[in-house]
Amino acid sequence: MWFSVSASCLIINGGYVQIVTDTEFRVLPVRKGDAYLLKSARGCYLVDGGGFGCDLPDLLQERGARRLRAAICTQVSPSAMGGLLETMRAGLPVAEYWLPEGLTVLPELALRFNGDLSGWLALAAGGAAEPPPSGTSWPLFALERGRRMLGAAGALALAMAAGQGTWRGVLPDASALGPGRFFLHLITRLMVDSPPPSDGAPLLTEMIGPLLTGMRVADLCLLCGRMILERFGRSSDGQRVGPAVVRALALGAMTAALADLTGARLRHFRPVDRLADHLVPRHPLMCLNGVESRPLPGLGHTVRPETILRQAAELAAPGRGLVFRYGEADCGVLFLSNSHLRFLPPGETLRLDRPTVVTAPGRGSCRQEQVYERVLSDSPEVDFWVRGRLPRARKVSPAFRRKVNVRCLHNCRLNTLREILLLFRGGGWTSEDAPCSA
Length: 438
Hints:
Layout: E1 9-13, E2 16-20, E3 23-27, E4 35-40, E5 43-49, H1 56-62, E6 70-72, H2 78-90, E7 96-100, H3 102-111, H4 117-125, E8 140-141, H5 147-164, E9 176-177, H6 179-191, H7 201-212, H8 217-232, H9 242-259, E10 265-271, E11 285-287, E12 290-293, H10 305-315, E13 324-327, E14 332-335, E15 350-352, E16 356-359, H11 369-372, E17 375-377, E18 384-387, H12 398-401, E19 406-408, E20 410-411, E21 416-417, E22 420-425, E23 428-431
Parallel strand pairs: 5-6, 6-7, 7-10, 8-9, 14-16, 15-17, 16-18, 18-19
Antiparallel strand pairs: 1-2, 3-4, 3-22, 4-5, 10-12, 11-13, 13-14, 20-21, 22-23
């Protein structure tokens, strides 16, 4: 099912009237991850936001996207969420954020953690782990900033312990701390590579504290989360489960902390293993493999380490990105994220029955080879396949190369970064860029 809209519309934006006559699709020039901007008669939509430090708020402002109807996260990874979190922090007017359900569930689970520290360490390490110091217990936070911020603190504690493989340096001696002081404690510890047994961190806290006291609690959480991602969130093929768990917990914590700063509506989508092609109410988009949900009801009063680990691992699992489809009467956009399309029954395909822009899964990498056979077009010559910047170490799928119209954010011939801009006018998508020889 597709949604039909008018070919033109008046949008009042910043005190002037703007006439929108074309649907505009951009792959934004971010150097980490993917960020897609869609402008139509129904407003502006951002799908994923690239990595941290990509100056996404400025990129959006420069392209006239001063207000977003929705900012959409398709996968839980720093390369998709960094820019979205920075957009939240910058206070860019966004009506709604669409998030994977697990991002909200993880901080809530951290609040309900039963305190089995040894069990958490063993699970996160995939086997035996260093036991917590004698007398260590799960912290009791003073209620300062509400439930979301408390959940963020707990999630970062679990993430840091999973990364270190120990509770040493994670939990302070005091049993009652507010989130701000707790984030400052973790930041201090992260700046000390190997804290000595005598604990030299308090002196460093006295040195750093005055520099950070002007920061909001949410900013401290964001800084702490980024430090944990940088230190413990990197992974490579064959690595244990730890880094993926760290990434999910840290990103969930940062989302929870920043959600308190935005007045936007939060909508949550639960992945499902079936085709769910219902339109999101009041929007010309549908989530093909997710259903909107209320994520918190039904959680137990206390949860075991296994529950938190399972939720974090599922959230960060490869190939489980949310797939969104945008449609007008005559054109469409298919956001494949990193999905393996496991929600399609065996032998079934996704059909493109009108000129469509398709964002290449995995940025066109060979790991997503099987996906291309499951997306079929009635008229492949009118479709465009686009991909973001692919590191040189990653090979491009031959199936992606064989597509008729291919556009790459990275100019393969000149080895430069370029923006992809496609316009739908006169019944088809047009591009001023030369085809890419990827």
